[in-house]
Task: inverse folding
């Protein structure tokens, strides 16, 4: 299925799932027999914790059987602040030569809704690269940070919480 959170290109695929299930952290880098269906969520309350999991399908092994997948991770907060991490190792291992391979990436993005975080939509943009195949797959995960009582902040409240004045200047 080709949508913003799951894409395939030239036989290589990537999918992001945002989940409250912490058990997935212990399976990083694991070869999976089938595509799992972890619990998904669309929102997080302040004080909660979620994880962004990246599932990789059919990374191409090199002549020695090694797979090499990297990822850029760009986080866009509701206040417009951006954080970028480049060339994060998503998967590097020897592969047994299976025809159909599904892996959980070696890194898991952990998100904790802190009191000082701006309320609203958080966007996680990933560019996943199968280095051996020379293919990039862009995927996007989203969630909405809600206050403890579950309401969404106004734009002005979000700015105050994140230290941005109404004229866009950081305070």
Result:
């Amino acid at each position: 299925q080709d949508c913003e959170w799951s894409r395939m290109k030239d036989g290589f695929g990537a999918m992001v799932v945002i989940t409250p299930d912490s058990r997935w952290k212990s399976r990083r880098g694991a070869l999976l027999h089938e595509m799992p269906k972890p619990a998904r969520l669309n929102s997080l309350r302040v004080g909660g914790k979620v994880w962004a999991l990246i599932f990789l399908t059919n990374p191409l092994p090199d002549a020695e059987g090694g797979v090499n997948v990297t990822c850029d991770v760009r986080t866009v907060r509701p206040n417009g602040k951006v954080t970028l991490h480049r060339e994060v190792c998503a998967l590097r291992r020897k592969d047994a030569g299976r025809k159909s391979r599904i892996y959980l990436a070696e890194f898991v993005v952990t998100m904790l809704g802190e009191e000082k975080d701006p309320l609203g939509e958080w966007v996680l943009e990933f560019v996943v690269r199968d280095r051996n195949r020379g293919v990039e797959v862009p995927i996007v995960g989203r969630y909405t940070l809600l206050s403890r009582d579950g309401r969404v902040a106004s734009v002005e409240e979000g700015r105050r919480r994140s230290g941005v004045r109404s004229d866009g200047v950081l305070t």
